[in-house]
Design goal:
By secondary structure, the protein is mainly α. The protein has helices at about 5-10, 20-30, 35-40, 45-55, 70-95, 105-125, 135-140, 140-150, 150-160, 165-175, 180-190, 195, 215-230, 235-240, 240-250, 250-275. Helix 6 (about 105-125) packs across helix 13 (about 215-230) and helix 8 packs across helix 9 (about 150-160).
């Protein structure tokens, strides 16, 4: 079974809500307006609640209380609303996975840290604001959840990290593909925009060039989040070639700042994806 077949096997079981596709269609339609998005979101009380909580969170620090879905959409903008809808939909889609194979709270914590580190580094390096690097980072490892469903015994072995063995190399050896490869195929099945998917095609082995900045940032962010969550097994230099730092022009202080940003903001985002885990809001 290759990555595409693996993703296809669960693509309809773990599906994004229709809201995701409908909002994408609205955003892609140049003559549509933000009121259409607000109306669509308002039909989903859970999503509406998450949107309002996000708009009123410290992440945006809006001076007045946001009390309506329409105002929340205006405050956040189309991109942030779409990010929340997809993130919430992805978390919902895999919420029924059995906890004996993987701890979903730890999975999402790593995913969110990757996304926030990537977002911070992208801002520092002047990446265009319309690049969906945050969402690519958040979804980058969904392939692991696919494998947990299809081949749980292999997923357990892949999750037993060892010093000197990069996780994606172990996945390749056991499965014939990496989790990133499977993620790419799942996101294609979900019909997500190519701009979200494209950087993930080189997640584990990005080309070392300034033109490939987004893939390099995502690779670095994923490795940094992984090393921080498993400090007893990995140091960052075990996972990342120092040449990547040189190509991007980053220092250790830059990475420290990105990690601090992720730590401060991560718990709030995690509570939005799964409020049962935390009581921050």
């Amino acid at each position: 079974m290759n990555a595409a077949e693996c993703a296809l096997q669960v693509g309809d079981i773990f599906a994004l809500p229709d809201t995701c596709l409908k909002i994408k269609e609205i955003i892609d339609d140049e003559i549509s307006d933000i009121d259409e998005i607000a109306e669509l979101v308002s039909y989903d009380p859970v999503l509406s609640s998450k949107l309002l909580r996000l708009a009123n969170s410290a992440l945006y620090n809006f001076p007045k209380q946001v009390e309506s879905v329409q105002k929340a959409v205006q405050v956040l903008g189309e991109t942030q609303v779409y990010n929340l809808v997809v993130a919430s939909g992805a978390a919902e889609a895999f919420a029924t996975l059995k906890p004996d194979v993987i701890a979903l709270d730890k999975f999402w914590e790593h995913s969110i840290n990757t996304a926030l580190i990537a977002k911070h580094l992208a801002f520092h390096l002047g990446v265009r604001k319309d690049e969906p690097i945050y969402l690519s980072g958040l979804l980058h490892n969904l392939g692991e959840l696919v494998v947990v469903q299809v081949k749980p015994e292999v997923a357990q072995i892949c999750g037993q990290y060892k010093k000197g063995v990069k996780p994606w190399m172990k996945q390749q050896a056991l499965l014939g593909f990496s989790y990133a490869d499977c993620t790419v195929e799942l996101l294609k099945h979900w019909q997500l925009p190519e701009r979200i998917i494209q950087p993930l095609k080189q997640l584990n082995q990005p080309e070392y060039s300034a033109a490939n900045k987004v893939s390099l940032i995502l690779h670095l962010a994923s490795c940094l989040a992984l090393s921080e969550a498993n400090a007893d097994v990995f140091q960052l230099h075990d996972l990342v070639d120092k040449q990547i730092m040189e190509v991007l022009g980053l220092s250790k202080d830059d990475l420290h700042d990105a990690s601090s940003f992720a730590f401060l903001e991560g718990m709030s985002i995690l509570s939005l994806l799964n409020p049962a885990l935390f009581s921050i809001f």
